[in-house]
Task: inverse folding
């Protein structure tokens, strides 16, 4: 259907033309252009009256032999949609970008960022060589010196303050392999304080969704949205954050004449295309969802059979929902009952319906509860596990899903094995290291402030410190931080500093650190905002376009990206830097036991094979590098909607594109991957499954296993628990295992062979046999409407810490103060103080933050790209026309936006618009480099300052953390705005 | 071949949508839903054109003129500029030349009336005045030619000398137009400074006009330093000059004072006034040179024949001689020969 | 005749002077369309001129330099 | 011969600006020159729509008509191109262009704004196809390679259509019939003196 351009003579001629002036060797194209006067310099001077206009020059003669054009495919790094980037490379220089028509995900298209991604590699603002601060001056150092000094310093800190004093902040820009390697390094170093951006974007999604039905990921796919007849987009603005996904959303809307309902405080570019827009007050998602469910239950629109067969404890939800009458919902959220009734009817009756959410739902002190409520809405209407339904969670970075999967998370080892002993032992087996040695790497934590001491083993199993609060763990008194010592060193890989709330506290934290290492293509806010004088290192990392490896898109599809060009300047890949550090720390031999290292660069393929060998729990076992590469080669064969290749294809026959996890068994088994999670209309071998039986088999006399529901072709025709050798023996299926498989299982199980499960069996035998019997290895359970292990088992509304409605706090207070992730969470105290001091009077405007299409995350990369930077040159605040009129603020004028904590303020441009309602302000979160009115450009190492700088919204965002994941609260804060 | 590929790519760009529908037809065979029409209240071109003659929105780049989406006035301006303007210009200029030729052939050259004072000179314009006149005049000629080049160059000149040479010439013309506008405008200011006081209209002018300025019939009506005809020329030059200056500046500094439509209007005015100005100046040149014997000397050497002066500017001559009884250039006043 | 000659010379001189003055008011597109929050390097002009060396010398092109020459590495 | 046109389906356009950066990427267009841009109408109000706009390559193009040096020409594909050798940077085309397409490397006074630059429909200029000189003056020539303009090829939601006018009109028509709404082919009346009748 998609017709690809012939890569014949024609395309060669173009590059012949472009490269005609390219000297042999590795002359950068930009340098070439500059020399030819295309880029730099001025124009014909007016006064000098250059005549004759542009002189004709010789056309490139046909005698010039055409240069070799290589086409490389990688994955766009700017969001989780997973657009294929097709690069044309001549003499090692990336000269052109072509549409990737073959990709079933983006079908040739890009957003502003993807279409400008070539510049990322060429950017003259990149960090070009390692640097360190010497007496406040940036000084060039060699890689050897940098690694040497960093290694010595963290070793010294480790000896003095313990392993937990070094914080390992990873990145969602890592490939799966780099993320996995980084987590492994953290484990070998002896700490669980290994985190990445998922903390601040979808940690609550992962926690909420996984606690509902088993896995914390998007259940369907972008493409599958084309099947939906009703879609609700709540707290998401895909038109700006995931533009290419809108291709599928809008196509679905058009083909099915689907209802597209946008629920958001802000009339976004997405809302402009909606069939219904619901404006809510920030931070009242649960009342809105319960308000919708109220109408659904009231009118009997729920899917009763689905609930009976596949959902646990929906009645507990009914009780909570009953409290949310239309009147109360309107009082709290501002949404009229009639409108919610309309939405409820559409969602429940015009099926299939899908629920799409993003950071508007997750970034709250009640983030996990929000996500849970959204899942429950899907469950109540039976909208899970079928085409066109599901929780379509749009994640933020190219590999934030993969990096989460790989365990860049303070609560888990790779692939969600958790931190329990069994998990450590599993990975010790995969890594072929001694469990005891791993344990010896961890600190013993002394008793302090009335808390018990922790042994090495206990510390090994205790969640680390979240990235949202690393600076609290630096700044707080030592006895408040529940580990051997507060944090002394930050190892920041590919992570901006400005995306975390409470920037002033972060700056204090930066200044209190003994060592700060920033490894990134750009200096980032971490390196540039503070006024540190020494002990700060910048390591130039190449972009992910300059390295091989797989990336997991939001829909769980893995895509193999190949190195487009060699790392530019002196930059090195994450792989290489991790290797060099490990070598310096004396860990290299153990860390790379089964991984080939060539010229200091560990092979991505080998890393993926190791992931395959250990990734049973999440079905990361079947995606071998060879299969993934075959998928990239055969992209055009996959169907646009089902994402499946024809069965008869020799290389990818029957596979779903990118082998979306879970992809069961060993690669040789050729499981096609799972396009739609929990879909029991398909055989497991065709990607069918059920809700994961993750939470036991029974609770309070009710079964937690599915009733009368099972995947197609299953030998077991009712619910069943997850599979272990014990279960296998009962069923007599152990006989189906081969001798080799049994040998491995015996080795794994030792004395307790019955406990060997589908997730710990390194042979893959249990999974293979499960598939043969048509059953899902993780069991066939019920989804939980009541997640009893969470702080709020059934979600309840809680007002934001800084609420514009103090009158509601008495009825809907935030959770009591508690200790979480080794630190106190004093949300309740802060909320009470805010109400007592009547903060809402002085700061009457709700401040919410979000994304712009041109930028991503902390924005250093994208703000350094002139093609993007030109389009958004100034940090701004969206302010409602009436609020602006009241304050005498004109569109485009400078204003001060101030926050309620510590008198912080930011100087930004006013964008007067009705996108936001009265009493609401919106600021994008991508900016940094200005701080409280001061331009900090001078603090960047010369020549590495991003093109555009601006105030960070997080200078004025405030306290508030989700109790389950430590998620911050940047979506419902308060502020005041005045003309500057 | 090439076309074929392009056409197929056209299909790629969007037919996927239809293909999908076909593939997935069974899943969505249900009847269309009652989803409200989301574009029922969406903006459309006709609606916006009813509100405003051009469509204007919001844009994030600082170049705010880019926020104009469509300005159909461009086509109207083009219609005027390419449709009407060449004809208007041609008519004005050729018409004036024709009129002057007709006048010349019917009335002939106005001769100097010889008298006893013939051969005696009186200073009519001092050096600065002549300098001002000539600076303005030379600039005007270049401006006129380079201005006309914008309209007629490609029609008349380009076919003769070829596009490349013409483009070079046009580039010169454009620069000279823009830069010589400044001495021209300065000249206008100087003219106002030195001649304004002599150009205030009064009753004598009325009589001069009633008498037909001496062109019709015999004898000369009274006139001061400048007769009504010259005053008209003065006010025309300064008025048109100012108008050309203002409209020109509006275009020279785009978007400082007016938007695109304002500039279109300015351009229209500039060219219309321009051709009228040129036509009028042609007449002025005619009278100052070919049309009247002795007139040229006023700006040539500055000195005119006293007899000419007396017949054309009798009151001025009286005044000058009264004022400068001991003036070196003037002979003592003698009683008019009756 | 002298007045005429002087006038022509003056007109030309003023025209040339005007060209210089006007050139100083002239901005490159990248200067005109960038804000105080942006520092643009290697701005380029438009796609003109294969032989264009990029180094224009003369009073009219002082604006062509980098706004913060000290910042370049 | 094909009659090349652009059509922006405003009911698909989400102002993602991919067309803008794709253009910059393909032709290395410098900062301040915007061959293509996206304008949002009724911003923040119900009925808001965004439209991507560049040179529409008009029928009987006004720019070509008013150019005092006749530097414009129309290709066999009906693409309106110009010669930077002949252009004197006078700015008349900017007055005449209904779509604000002409760009100038200098801003300020009229006289010396430099050679006009605009969207070439990714088909270069008067120089020999695919020559280095053509690339340097006008950017790449995708049409000569059998490709369409990159802005349309990369449009995230396939809102921006490029190709033969009748074909893209047909595609748009079918879309509108399928989905039941359409705010029209923006700019077509002004550019081509026709509209897509549904």
Result:
């Amino acid at each position: 259907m998609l017709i690809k351009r012939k890569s014949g003579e024609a395309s060669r001629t173009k590059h012949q033309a472009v490269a005609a002036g390219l000297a042999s060797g590795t002359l950068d194209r930009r340098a070439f252009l500059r020399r030819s006067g295309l880029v730099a310099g001025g124009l014909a001077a007016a006064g000098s009256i250059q005549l004759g206009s542009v002189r004709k020059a010789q056309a490139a003669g046909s005698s010039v032999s055409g240069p070799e054009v290589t086409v490389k495919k990688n994955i766009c790094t700017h969001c989780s949609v997973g657009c294929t980037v097709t690069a044309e490379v001549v003499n090692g220089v990336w000269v052109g970008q072509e549409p990737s028509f073959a990709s079933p995900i983006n079908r040739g298209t890009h957003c502003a960022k993807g279409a400008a991604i070539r510049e990322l590699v060429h950017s003259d603002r990149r960090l070009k060589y390692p640097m360190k601060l010497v007496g406040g001056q940036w000084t060039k150092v060699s890689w050897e010196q940098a690694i040497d000094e960093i290694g010595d310093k963290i070793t010294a800190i480790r000896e003095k303050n313990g392993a937990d004093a070094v914080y390992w902040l990873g990145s969602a820009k890592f490939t799966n392999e780099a993320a996995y390697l980084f987590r492994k390094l953290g484990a070998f170093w002896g700490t669980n304080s290994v985190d990445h951006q998922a903390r601040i974007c979808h940690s609550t999604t992962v926690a909420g969704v996984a606690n509902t039905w088993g896995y914390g990921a998007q259940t369907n796919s972008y493409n599958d949205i084309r099947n939906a007849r009703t879609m609700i987009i709540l707290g998401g603005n895909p038109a700006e954050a995931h533009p290419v996904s809108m291709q599928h959303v809008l196509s679905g809307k058009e083909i099915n004449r689907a209802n597209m309902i946008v629920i958001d405080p802000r009339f976004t570019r997405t809302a402009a295309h909606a069939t219904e827009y619901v404006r809510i007050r920030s931070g009242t998602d649960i009342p809105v969802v319960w308000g919708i469910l109220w109408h659904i239950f009231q009118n009997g629109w729920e899917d009763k059979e689905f609930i009976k067969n596949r959902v646990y404890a929906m009645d507990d939800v009914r009780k909570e929902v009953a409290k949310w009458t239309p009147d109360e919902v309107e009082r709290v959220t501002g949404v009229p009952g009639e409108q919610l009734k309309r939405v409820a009817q559409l969602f429940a009756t015009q099926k299939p319906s899908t629920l799409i959410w993003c950071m508007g739902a997750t970034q709250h002190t009640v983030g996990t509860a929000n996500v849970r409520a959204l899942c429950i809405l899907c469950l109540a209407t039976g909208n899970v596990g079928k085409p066109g339904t599901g929780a379509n969670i749009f994640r933020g970075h190219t590999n934030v899903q993969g990096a989460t999967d790989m365990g860049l998370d303070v609560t888990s080892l790779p692939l969600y094995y958790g931190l329990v002993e069994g998990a450590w032992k599993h990975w010790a087996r995969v890594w072929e290291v001694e469990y005891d040695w791993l344990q010896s790497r961890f600190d013993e934590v002394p008793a302090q402030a009335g808390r018990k001491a922790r042994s090495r083993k206990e510390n090994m199993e205790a969640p680390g410190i979240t990235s949202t609060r690393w600076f609290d763990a630096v700044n707080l008194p030592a006895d408040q931080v529940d580990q051997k010592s507060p944090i002394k060193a930050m190892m920041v890989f590919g992570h901006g500093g400005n995306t975390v709330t409470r920037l002033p506290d972060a700056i204090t934290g930066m200044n209190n650190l003994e060592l700060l290492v920033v490894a990134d293509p750009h200096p980032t806010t971490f390196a540039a905002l503070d006024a540190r004088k020494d002990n700060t290192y910048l390591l130039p990392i190449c972009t992910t376009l300059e390295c091989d490896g797989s990336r997991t898109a939001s829909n769980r599809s893995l895509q193999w990206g190949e190195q487009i060009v060699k790392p530019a300047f002196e930059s090195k890949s994450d792989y290489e830097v991790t290797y060099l550090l490990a070598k310096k720390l004396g860990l290299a031999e153990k860390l790379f036991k089964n991984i080939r290292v060539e010229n200091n660069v560990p092979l991505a393929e080998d890393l993926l094979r190791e992931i395959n060998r250990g990734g049973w729990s999440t079905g990361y076992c079947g995606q071998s590098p060879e299969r993934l590469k075959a998928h990239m080669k055969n992209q055009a064969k996959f169907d646009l909607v089902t994402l499946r290749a024809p069965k008869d294809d020799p290389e990818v026959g029957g596979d779903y594109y990118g082998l979306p996890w879970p992809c069961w068994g060993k690669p040789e088994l050729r499981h096609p991957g799972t396009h739609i999670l929990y879909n029991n209309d398909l055989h497991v071998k065709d990607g069918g499954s059920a809700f994961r039986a993750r939470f036991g088999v029974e609770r309070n006399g009710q079964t937690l296993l599915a009733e009368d529901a099972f995947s197609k072709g299953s030998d077991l025709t009712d619910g069943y628990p997850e599979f272990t050798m014990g279960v296998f023996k009962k069923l007599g299926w152990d006989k189906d295992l081969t001798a080799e498989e049994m040998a491995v299982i015996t080795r794994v199980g030792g004395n307790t062979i019955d406990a060997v499960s589908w997730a710990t069996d390194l042979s893959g035998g249990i999974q293979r046999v499960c598939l043969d019997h048509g059953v899902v290895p993780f069991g066939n359970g019920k989804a939980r409407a009541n997640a009893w292990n969470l702080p709020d088992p059934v979600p309840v509304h809680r007002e934001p810490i800084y609420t514009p409605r103090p009158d509601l706090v008495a009825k809907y207070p935030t959770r009591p103060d508690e200790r979480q992730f080794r630190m106190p969470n004093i949300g309740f105290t802060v909320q009470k103080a805010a109400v007592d001091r009547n903060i809402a009077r002085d700061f009457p405007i709700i401040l919410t933050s979000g994304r712009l299409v041109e930028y991503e995350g902390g924005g250093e990369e994208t703000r350094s790209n002139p093609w993007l930077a030109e389009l958004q040159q100034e940090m701004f605040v969206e302010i409602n026309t009436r609020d602006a009129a009241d304050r005498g603020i004109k569109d485009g004028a400078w204003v001060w936006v101030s926050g309620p904590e510590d008198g912080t303020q930011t100087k930004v441009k006013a964008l007067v618009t009705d996108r936001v309602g009265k009493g609401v302000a919106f600021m994008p979160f991508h900016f940094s480099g200005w701080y409280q009115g001061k331009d900090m450009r001078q603090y960047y190492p010369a020549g590495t300052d991003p093109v555009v700088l601006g105030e960070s919204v997080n200078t004025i965002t405030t306290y508030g953390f989700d109790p389950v994941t430590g998620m911050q609260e940047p979506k419902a804060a308060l502020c005041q705005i005045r003309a500057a | 071949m090439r076309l074929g590929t392009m056409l197929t790519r056209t299909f790629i760009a969007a037919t996927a949508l239809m293909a999908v529908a076909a593939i997935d037809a069974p899943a969505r065979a249900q009847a269309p839903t009652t989803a409200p029409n989301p574009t029922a209240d969406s903006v459309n071109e006709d609606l916006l054109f009813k509100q405003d003659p051009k469509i204007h929105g919001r844009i994030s780049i600082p170049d705010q003129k880019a926020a104009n989406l469509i300005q159909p006035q461009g086509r109207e301006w083009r219609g005027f500029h390419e449709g009407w303007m060449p004809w208007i210009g041609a008519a004005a200029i050729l018409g004036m030349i024709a009129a002057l030729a007709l006048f010349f052939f019917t009335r002939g050259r106005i001769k100097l009336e010889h008298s006893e004072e013939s051969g005696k000179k009186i200073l009519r314009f001092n050096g600065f005045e002549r300098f001002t006149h000539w600076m303005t005049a030379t600039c005007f000629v270049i401006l006129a030619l380079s201005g006309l080049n914008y309209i007629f160059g490609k029609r008349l000149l380009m076919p003769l000398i070829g596009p490349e040479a013409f483009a070079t010439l046009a580039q010169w013309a454009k620069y000279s137009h823009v830069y010589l506008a400044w001495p021209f405008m300065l000249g206008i200011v100087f003219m106002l400074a030195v001649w304004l006081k002599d150009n205030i209209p009064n009753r004598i002018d009325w009589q001069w006009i009633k008498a037909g300025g001496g062109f019709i019939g015999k004898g000369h009506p009274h006139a001061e330093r400048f007769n009504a005809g010259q005053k008209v020329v003065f006010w025309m030059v300064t008025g048109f000059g100012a108008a050309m200056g203002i409209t020109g500046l509006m275009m020279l500094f785009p978007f400082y004072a007016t938007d695109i439509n304002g500039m279109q209007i300015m351009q229209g005015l500039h060219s219309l006034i321009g051709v009228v100005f040129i036509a009028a100046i042609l007449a002025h040149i005619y009278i100052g040179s070919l049309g009247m014997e002795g007139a040229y000397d006023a700006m040539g050497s500055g000195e005119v024949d006293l007899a000419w002066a007396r017949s054309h500017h009798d009151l001025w001559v009286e005044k000058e001689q009264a004022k400068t009884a001991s003036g070196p250039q003037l002979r003592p006043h003698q009683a008019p020969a009756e | 005749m002298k007045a005429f000659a002087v006038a022509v010379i003056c007109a030309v001189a003023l025209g040339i002077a005007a060209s210089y003055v006007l050139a100083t008011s002239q901005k490159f597109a990248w200067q005109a369309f960038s804000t105080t929050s942006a520092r643009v390097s290697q701005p380029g002009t438009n796609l003109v001129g294969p032989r264009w060396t990029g180094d224009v010398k003369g009073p009219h092109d002082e604006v062509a330099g980098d706004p913060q020459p000290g910042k370049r590495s | 011969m094909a009659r090349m046109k652009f059509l922006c389906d405003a009911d698909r356009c989400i102002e993602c600006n991919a067309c803008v950066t794709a253009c910059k990427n393909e032709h290395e267009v410098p900062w301040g020159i915007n061959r293509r841009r996206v304008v949002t109408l009724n911003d923040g109000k119900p009925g808001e729509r965004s439209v991507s706009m560049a040179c529409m390559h008009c029928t009987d193009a006004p720019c070509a008509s008013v150019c005092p040096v006749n530097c414009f020409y129309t290709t066999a594909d009906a693409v309106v191109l110009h010669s930077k050798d002949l252009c004197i940077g006078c700015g008349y085309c900017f007055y005449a262009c209904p779509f604000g397409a002409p760009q100038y490397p200098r801003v300020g006074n009229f006289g010396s704004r430099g050679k006009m630059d605009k969207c070439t429909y990714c088909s270069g200029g008067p120089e020999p196809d695919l020559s280095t000189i053509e690339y340097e003056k006008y950017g790449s020539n995708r049409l000569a390679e059998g490709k369409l303009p990159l802005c349309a090829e990369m449009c995230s939601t396939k809102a921006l259509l490029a190709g033969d006018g009748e074909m893209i009109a047909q595609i748009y028509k079918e879309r509108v019939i399928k989905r039941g709404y359409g705010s029209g082919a923006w700019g077509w009346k002004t550019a081509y003196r026709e509209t897509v009748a549904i």
